[in-house]
Amino acid sequence: MNRTFFRNTLAGLRKRLARLAPDTLWVVRPENRRYLSGFRASDVQLDESAGYLLITEKDALLVTDSRYTTEAEAQVVDTEVVTIHKDFVESLPELLKRLGTQCLAFEPGFLTWGLHRRVHRALKAMDPAVRLQPLRGVVEKLREIKAPEEIEAMERSSDLMGAILDEVVPRMTPGRTEKAIAWEIEGLAREGGAEGMAFDPIVASGPNGALPHAVPSERALQPGEPVVVDVGVRVEGYCCDMTRTVFPGNAEPSERFRTVYRTVRRAQLAALEAVRPGVETTHPDRIARDIIREAGFGDYFGHSLGHGVGLAAHERPRLAPRKPTRLEAGMVVTVEPGIYLPEEGGVRLEEMVVVEKSGPRILTRTDHFLDL
C-alpha cells in the first residue's frame, strides 16, 4: 500500500470519530493497526502486542517497545512511533495527558479482560479521570469497502493460490496423506513469495470432509472419494480464500456424491448471480440454501454462505440467514455453499469475488470444478 492509502484510512477514521463521543481511539486489533498505520508486525500471542495505536483528531501514535522501533519507523505513515521502556499500562496515563484525552474508546472484541481491568484502574486514578468506553466495529466498517490497491493485493494472493492448486491437484493421488498435501501447499506458498498462509490449510478426505474445519491427518486419500481443499495465502497482508472439492484417482465418484456435487455447484452459481450492490446479504444465502434444501440436503448445510475477506480471512460483511446488511460495490466476499454428510464426506465449493455494479468479479480464477 502507498502512503496515500494510509492517509485516506486515517482521514476516514477521523471523520467517523468526529461524530462519536470518544476523543481518542485505542486500536488493539493487529489488522486494524496495519490498515491505519502500515505497521506490519504480528502479535506473538493474545497477551503480547507488537504495538497499540492511539488516534485523535490531530495525532496518531504507535506505542511499541524497542523490539519493534526500527521496523515501525520504517513502515508507518503519518504516525509517530513512541517507544516505551516500561509496561504499556504504566505508560498510558502520561500518553493520554499528552493527547488531552477525556474519553478513551477501545475495541471490545479484541481486548482481554485482564488488560481491560488494569487500564480501567489506571484511568480511574488519573486526575481528572479518563472515561473508558467500548466502541465496536468502527475500523471494521471502514475496511468493508476495499480500495483498488487492496483488491489488487487480493488478486495477487488469489493468483498465487490458484497457481499452487494447479500444481498440487494433479498430484493428489490415492495413497497420499492429507498432511503431506497440506505441507506441500504451505511449502509452495512460501516459495512463491507469500507472507504466509491466510489460515491453516484444510485437506479433508472421505469422512473427514464432513467436518467443515477439519484438520489434515495421516489419513490416505482413496480413489473416487471427495477431498475438500480449503486454502488461502497472504500477499502484502491481504488474504485469499478458496475451496475446491476433487476426486483423486481415475475412479468415478459414487452416484450419491455426484448428486451432492451437482447440487452444491448449482447452489453456488445461482447465489453468485445474486451478488450485486444493493442486495441484502441474506438474499444470496437464501437462494443457495433453498436449492440445497429442495435437493433433500437442507439439514447438511449448517454454516453461512460466505463472509468478507481482506487483511483477515474472515471479516465483514457476512452472507448469512440473519442480520441483513446491503452489499456495496468494492466489498470482497466469498460464496461457499457446502453439504456435509456425517461419516460419509462432504463437498464445499468457494469463490472469492469483488462486488461490482455489473455483478460479482471472481478473483479465485483457477478452475478445478468438475463437470459431473
Number of DSSP strands?
19
Categorize the overall geometry: elongated
Low-confidence stretches: none
Percent in helix: 25-40%
Query: What's the order of the H and E elements?
Result: HEHEEHEHEHEHHHEEEEEEHHEEEEEEE
> What's the alpha carbon Rg, rounded to whole Å?
23 Å
The spatial strand order of the largest sheet comes to 4-3-2-1-5-6
Mean pLDDT: 96
Count of helical stretches: 10
Q: What is the CATH homologous superfamily assignment of the largest domain?
A: Creatinase/methionine aminopeptidase superfamily
Main sheet attributes: strand count, strand direction, barrel closure: 6 strands, mixed
Strand content: 15-25%
Which structural class best describes the helix and strand composition?
Answer: alpha+beta
CATH topology of the largest domain: Creatine Amidinohydrolase
Top-tier CATH class of the largest domain: Alpha Beta
Question: How many discrete structural domains?
Answer: 2
Question: What is the distance, rounded to the nearest whole angstrom, between the alpha carbons of the first and last residues?
Answer: 42 Å
At CATH level 2, the architecture of the largest domain is Alpha-Beta Complex
